Amino acid sequence: MFNQSVIETQQVLAENLAHLRQCLSTLDELLRMAVANARAAGFTEGEYQGMYVDDHEIDRHLANSPGAGLWQTAQTPFDVLPWRLDQEHSREQLTALEQTVAPDHPFRFLRLVQAFNLSWSERTLLLIALAPEIDRRYERLYSFLQDDVTRRRPTVDLALNLLADSFEDRIEAWRYLTSKAPLIYFDLLSTYADAAQREPTYLAHFLKVDPRIVNFVLGHDVIDPRVSMAVQRFEPSLVITDERREALRSALAVQPIFYFYGTYGAGMRETALGLCGSLGKPLIIADIARLKAHATDTLNAAPSLDRFEALMRLVFREARLAGGGLLLENWISVLDDRHAAPEWLMQMVIDSPHAIILSGAEAWEPHAIDRERPILRSEFGVPEYSPVIGSFTTSVSQYARHAITRHGAVRRK
User: Fold this and answer.
1) Per-residue model confidence (pLDDT) at position 387
2) Of 238, 226, 245, 364, nearest to 286 (Cα)?
3) How many CB atoms are located within 10 Å of the residue 328 CB?
4) Kind and range of the H or E run holding 320
5) Distance of CA 413 to the CA centre of its chain
6) Burial of residue 268, with CB atoms counted within 10 A of its CB: 0-12 exposed, 13-18 middle, 19 or more buried
7) What angle do CA 26, 32, 38 make, to 5 degrees?
8) Rg of the chain taking only CA atoms, in angstroms
9) CA separation for the pair 398, 413 (Å, rounded)
10) What whole-number distance in Å separates Cα of residue 396 and Cα of residue 9?
11) Residue 145 neighbours by CB distance under 10 Å
């Protein structure tokens, strides 16, 4: 049994890495095209590359129009390079493969793309930043393409030039690196300045993939250390009856927000596990009160509210990476005097693509929110697990049959 498990694990790892190599092959085609243009533009690799500006480089910059690419010249238009066809062929092959995979496929990079609904351009930006994390040959390639031996990581400028041919397309692609875009909002990648430069332009900032994302792509599931003190992952394990399973699925069809309230130990956590177990999905459990307390720790230099929001983004990121449900315990601790949750946190809850469960010690009604997304409330007052599940199943069954407005809802934006 042990040997069979090891073999299956190794097979999953091998399949994941094979897909990752194929993804990197599409990047390699982009880099071949870029290197050809860089050489045609006069880039050379040497000991002092990027250390000084010679007359040839000055003339090249003056000859180009404003907004010209890093390597674009009149003699080397992008649309006639033979590498473009190879790059398009690699993309078509990869797309064809990914369109035929099963829902439980082992391809971590594709799961990442699906979890955050990334476009092809966004996944390319992520891949550009990810490549040197797993293969250092990309450091040399990037330093050549940036005409600077000290720049071994991709800058925003390099990434945009690899992603888009024209000035207009590069400006359009800029939106993928704004604060509300998935890549930045969920901290999949970040930008940072070269310590040797004082207040560099945004184009000169480097791109870096978050270590948690690198680990995920390589097949390692370890909770982000910034939230691990208050976050746990549970694999699906609870078995429930067909009747209960159908009742739960009926409720999930309208994507409700579950709110459980009652006595500690009354079975709220177990019911959440049963909910996700009925779907064969893992459950991420986060103690929101502990996270809030950690954010207000005097040792943290950042403002407490900003830090709390940053920590909660990481929690919701963990749920998306797991592809399962999320239970936020001690929900009451984040409410203000009006019993209202922070708007930004409520929006995270509304936008959660998987099962979302909130739990607290007392009843709660969303404050001043339009009603569109349903809320299913269930009170837990019996400490025994089985009666609670039975009561919860009855509540869900009734909920599935009656009007959603009876239970209330919150608005999607």
Assistant:
1) 44
2) 226
3) 28
4) helix 304-322
5) 19
6) buried
7) 140
8) 25
9) 28
10) 37
11) 22
CA 182 to chain centre: 7
- Quote the pTM value: 0.84
Counting residues of the chain whose pLDDT is more than 70, the rounded percentage is 74
C-alpha span between 33 and 28 (Å, rounded): 9
Q: What's the rounded Cα separation, in Å, for the pair 158 and 128?
A: 9
- % the chain with pLDDT above 90: 46
Beta strands in 78-148 (DSSP E): none
Three-state secondary structure call for residue 274: helix
Is the distance from CB of 20 to CB of 92 less than 8 angstroms? Answer: no
Q: Which helix (H) or strand (E) holds 29?
A: helix 2-40
Per-residue model confidence as pLDDT tens digits over 181-197: 999 999 999 999 988 88
- CB of 282 within 8 A of CB of 236? yes
Please provide residue 88's backbone torsions phi and psi, each rounded to the nearest 5 degrees: -65, -35
Locate 43 and state its tokens: 């880039």
CA pair distance 94, 204, nearest whole angstrom: 31
Residues 6+ apart with CB under 8 A from 73: 37, 40, 41, 60, 63, 64
Within its chain, how far is the Cα of 125 from the centroid? 13
Lowest mean pLDDT among 4-18, 40-54, 290-304: 40-54
Mean pLDDT of all residues in 106-119: 95
Closest of 343, 345, 350, 379 to residue 362, by C-alpha: 379
Q: Name the amino acid, one letter, at 357.
A: I
Q: Are residues 177 and 183 in contact, defined by beta-carbon separation less than 8 angstroms?
A: yes
Instruction: Read off the tokens for 124.
Output: 């390319």
189-192 and 206-209 beta bridge pairing: antiparallel
Rounded CA gap, 318 and 231, in Å?
9
Query: How many Cβ atoms from other residues are within 10 Å of residue 139's Cβ?
Result: 16
**Which segments within 221-317 are labelled E, that is strand?**
231-234, 257-262, 283-287
d(CA 53, CA 56): 8
Question: What is the β-pairing status of strands 356-360 and 325-329?
Answer: parallel
Whose tokens are 């704004």? That residue is: 178
